[in-house]
UniProtKB/TrEMBL annotation:
Transmembrane segments: 7-25, 45-66
Keyword Transferase: no
Domain Lipopolysaccharide assembly protein A: 27-89
Keywords: Cell membrane, Coiled coil, Membrane, Transmembrane, Transmembrane helix
Protein name in UniProt: LapA family protein
Coiled-coil stretches noted in the UniProt entry, renumbered to this chain: 68-95
InterPro entries: LapA_dom
Length: 99
């Protein structure tokens, strides 16, 4: 099952690269881009669109990772508390009632 997932991933990656290449070929007009007053060099429209699409993708992944990391930290704290409580319960069960 792991190898099937790997090959599906490879196929999707190759298809995305191919579509990006075709998109770049169809949009070959050189355009200058100005961001916040900073002039960037002239590249084809396809290159700029793919660059900004990739930048948005990376920004989205980064932003979605923050809550995930927070939840993982909370889960680890709760697991630690659970282990401590289980040890306390075992200790209390092992003691006799007349102590």
């Amino acid at each position: 099952m792991r190898t099937i997932g790997f090959w599906v991933y490879v196929f999707i990656l190759i298809a995305a690269l191919f579509w990006g290449y075709l998109f770049n070929l169809e949009n070959d007009i050189a355009v200058p881009v100005v961001i916040f007053g900073i002039s960037l060099p002239e590249y084809s429209l396809g290159v700029w669109l793919l660059v900004f699409c990739l930048a948005g993708l990376l920004a989205g992944i980064t932003i979605s990772l923050l809550p995930n990391l927070r939840h993982k930290r909370k889960v680890s704290v709760l697991l630690r508390q659970n282990r401590q409580l289980e040890q306390e319960v075992q200790l209390l069960r092992s003691q006799s009632l007349r102590d």
